[in-house]
Amino acid sequence: MSKIKEKREELNITQEQLAEKCGVSTRTIQRIEAGAEPKGHTLNALTKALGLEVSDLKESPSVMVHSDHTWLKIINFSSLPLTVLPPLNIVVPLIIMFAKKEVNRMNKQVVTLQIFWTIGAFILFMLASFMKNWFDLGNKLILVTMIVLVLSNVFVILRNSFEIDKRGKLYVDLNFSII
């Protein structure tokens, strides 16, 4: 539960009353109580109306990780069983992300990472196939390449999940998205 909602309920006022007191819409109060971060005028009006300081409205990291990153973890983990079928490790997370309307920076980065991994895996697999023929290395090179590619993707997915749980961020942070 957000601190704003807690304080509003403690003061025994409705969302509509708080919105009127702050000079914002009721929908704005609803979004803020659902997790949106208030800024500027809204932040100042809320702190004044609720008798709080700006620092009082900052959520503790452990609460934010638990509540804000549930869908991020689900989207990240949805790629795991599909690492052996590279196109599906992109499609399924995309479907979940858009179906649940969880289109945000970190979710986009998870899908972007899977897109880059799939492209890279295809290139490396093709290279291994050509090397097998050029250097007469046999089929073991193809098998080893497939295993290494799948294990690398599994490692990144699990490591991202660990970082999401511990720090609320991704281990592989691309800082851009192609979606």
Automatic annotation (TrEMBL):
Keyword annotations: DNA-binding, Membrane, Transmembrane, Transmembrane helix
Which Pfam families does the protein's record reference?
Answer: HTH_3, MamF_MmsF
* Transmembrane regions listed in the UniProt entry: 74-98, 110-131, 137-158
Q: How does it sit in the membrane?
A: Multi-pass membrane protein
In the UniProt record, does the keyword Nuclease occur?
A: no
Give the coiled coil ranges.
Answer: none
Q: PROSITE patterns, per this entry?
A: HTH_CROC1
Q: Does the keyword Transmembrane helix apply?
A: yes
Where is this gene product found?
Answer: Membrane
Q: Which domain of life is it from?
A: Bacteria
Q: Which residues form the HTH cro/C1-type domain?
A: 4-57
- Cite the SMART domains for this sequence: HTH_XRE
GO molecular function terms noted in the UniProt entry: DNA binding
CDD domains named in the record: HTH_XRE (cd00093)
Question: What is the name attached to this protein's record?
Answer: Helix-turn-helix domain protein
